[in-house]
Amino acid sequence: SPKDMLILVDVSGSVSGLTLKLIRTSVSEMLETLSDDDFVNVVSFNDNAKNVSCFNHLVQANVRNKKVLKENINMISAKGITDYKKGFSFAFEQLLNFNVSRANCNKIIMLFTDGGEEKAQEIFKKYNPDRKVRVFTFSVGQHNYDKGPIQWMACTNNGYYYEIPSIGAIRINTQEYLDVLGRPMVLAGEKAKQIQWTNVYLDALELGLVITGTLPVFNLTVGHDGKKNQLILGVMGVDVSLEEIKGLTPRFNLSPNGYYYAIDPNGYVLLHPNLQPKPVGTSIPSVNLRKRRPDVQNPKSQEPVTLDFLDAELENEMKVKIRQKMIDGESGKESFQTLVKSQDERYIDRGNRTYTWAPVSKTDYSLALVLPSYSFNYIEAKLDDTMTQARSKKNKLKEVLE
Prior knowledge:
Elements: E1 3-10, H1 18-31, E2 39-45, E3 49-51, E4 59-60, H2 63-73, H3 84-95, E5 106-113, H4 121-127, E6 133-140, H5 148-156, E7 161-164, H6 170-175, H7 177-188, E8 196-197, E9 201-202, E10 209-219, E11 231-241, H8 242-246, E12 259-263, E13 269-271, H9 289-292, H10 309-312, H11 317-327, E14 332-341, E15 348-359, E16 366-372, H12 383-401
Parallel strand pairs: 1-2, 1-5, 5-6, 6-7
Antiparallel strand pairs: 2-3, 2-4, 8-10, 9-10, 10-11, 12-13, 12-16, 14-15, 15-16
């Protein structure tokens, strides 16, 4: 389920050295558990609190934003003293900022620290009296600090407490919270069993661009104590090639300059004529690829192809509105003048286009058809009429030659 996550990082002087390295790695691993449906930001604190990057509010957890956060996490340094009140006040203020885009579902604060003596009780009483914000705490590193206060923070705010003593414990502990958030889905039963589709990505088996439909698998067995299990066992998925989807649409009926496109709930393109990622790493020997060209990726390890609809086309106000209506699952039709690229992409001209869109049944996608004005008219003729016209032209040509 979608999440609004604020990652709170302790950068006081006591977390220097190995502990700081573990925190950096843990936060990077935590970011990898998020998808484009989630929103996130990372805040560091000691005796003061600040954003680790240029983001001053929650941002969509897409590939680009997570990359920015990871780069800045690796630059944090440890100094000062720990003040949980400053850190949690700053975190709650961002989570309660409703003037920016957000998931508006699960609200979470993830605290990474080596421990401390205060509990910041007045902060939780002020900002989280109804416990709608879950607090998960992580004790990082090997130390003898009192773990009681951060255990209390987690238990009091509907969260969990974890320990990360070494690098080997990072992955399992940073993913454990997903089981906790998944329990309401298990209890919801069939209502929660909805197919979720991924972004477009390049298949590792060289099948081209694909999307994957996933469905959660729940453990609904009953234990010896009579209690029903509330765990997600895993996820099953099926890959669908974009070429297969394109094959369902007869392009020859759309006129030379007509086309169709589809977008997902985040506004990313699923189908579009301009969705043509450049081949990366081709014609380069796969052996020691990174040593020869460290800035070049092998096609098998490319990031998801996250092309926004407004980047795929020449943007204007009407297209912004169409994009939002498609995301909201609405149907509609608009005709307007827009800038159009030539087929060889060498020229740009103005032309009238009609956009018609509607949601795709039983999916989160929305499909649109774009046609120029001259595509709405066509000539209909019977086969025998065509043959008669051909004979007539042949007779006239014969008379002229004679």
